[in-house]
Design a protein that fits this description.
The complex is a heterotetramer, with two copies of chain A (about 80 residues) and two copies of chain C (about 160 residues).
Chain A lengths: L1 E6 L1 H7 L3 E5 L6 H11 L11 E4 L2 E3 L10 E5 L6
Parallel strand pairs in A: 1-5
Antiparallel strand pairs in A: 1-2, 3-4, 3-5
Chain C lengths: L3 E4 L5 H13 L7 E8 L3 E2 L2 E10 L1 H18 L4 E7 L1 E4 L3 E9 L2 H18 L2 E7 L3 E4 L9 H12 L2
Parallel strand pairs in C: 1-5
Antiparallel strand pairs in C: 2-7, 3-4, 4-6, 4-8, 5-7, 8-9
Helix pairs in contact in C: 2-3, 3-4
The chains are: A alpha+beta (about 80), C alpha+beta (about 160).
Chain lengths: ~80, ~80, ~160, ~160
Amino acid sequence: MRVRVQLFARLRELAGRSDVECEVGDGSTIADVWREVAGRHPGLAPYEASVSCARNEDFARMSAPVADGDAIAFLPPVSGG
Amino acid sequence: MRVRVQLFARLRELAGRSDVECEVGDGSTIADVWREVAGRHPGLAPYEASVSCARNEDFARMSAPVADGDAIAFLPPVSGG
Amino acid sequence: MSLLSITSQPLHAGVLAAELEREVQGRGEGCGAVCTFLGIVRATHKGRRVRYLEYEAFEPLALKTFDRIAREIAADWPEARVAIHHRVGRLAVGEASVIIAAASSHRAESFQVCRYAIERIKQIAPIWKHEFFAEGDAWVEGATADIEDETARRRARDIAACV
Amino acid sequence: MSLLSITSQPLHAGVLAAELEREVQGRGEGCGAVCTFLGIVRATHKGRRVRYLEYEAFEPLALKTFDRIAREIAADWPEARVAIHHRVGRLAVGEASVIIAAASSHRAESFQVCRYAIERIKQIAPIWKHEFFAEGDAWVEGATADIEDETARRRARDIAACV
């Protein structure tokens, strides 16, 4: 399956890009997508424990399954306000 | 001694006037002034326990002495804000 | 513009907040938070429809009282600053009777100072609200103003520390 | 004007407060209190002089998060209404990064709702602050956004209501 990954804030800077196309196997979860992206951009690895994520512009759990064409967003700890 | 008394809000309405000239004996306190004013305007009597007062534009105790020419103000319970 | 005032003119919180922000920005850690409170003339009071209100103040003493409240705040929240403008005269439903702005480097203090100020105003400022209904009118009478009442001051501080 | 927004334009609390006041005035007891909070770009951060900030947001999700916060508030404070405008892009020292307005019939709720909103924004809104100093820059990273974390929500409510 092909999913589109969006990276924000420091994750974007560490990866050097805001959008990543990503190929994962059937039955993959968002966590699998994260491992794929962090594998390609090792600078992201320290965020493994603190990252949160969204699927198609809604918050999701890392354990949620992904479908072909999904937009997955990875969010470092937030600091709005 | 002659003192000028200012009445506010409902006290003013009950007395029908905002300013009262008042004659009290030497050694009088603000409480004596109140009794003098309330004697002339009995409608004020129910405020005996809840009134507060000022002397020459500063809060004062009812037990404070008054001097000739003082401006004494009687204030019903407040409701600003 | 004075930070403390009594006026018969409509109140504008924005100008007050901006002035206070500039003042606090220039010192210490700077200004990171401004909390404002607007007391508004409500359309109803205990189920009765309000036509309009009149506020009356013993102006010189009310200003001194605002200054006292500002000094109490300076003692308890030294990094914060407060501004208080209170309206007098006739007010329509929806108009602001009082605006308070509190600026500080961090948000908790700005909320606390703003809340403390409105609680203290209601306790000790020599200002009175006169409500006019479709039928009849009523003076509102709250607290007996007593600046020596430390229990009241502590109560205001406790309410504020909770915000 | 929308009550919830993300914008690169300067924020104006007055318009927001006025709109909210009108909305709350028309229902129930009416509107007696408006509390606003302005988060301001502070001149210093941990002793370092700030040149400017940049805020970045995941806009569609941030707007949904504001809507979630507004619904949480409607559940806990049914008489109150909240508005949230958050700025993105480059901000100078002294500018507002966020403005929150909370209107209700009585003052306690307006303070509580305003405080709850800013606490929740800091917990879960997908927005990031990037600080630029005279030398160097730093992303600020606070909470891991977790909308299912009921402990965090309760903490925001406790801070707001001082339980």
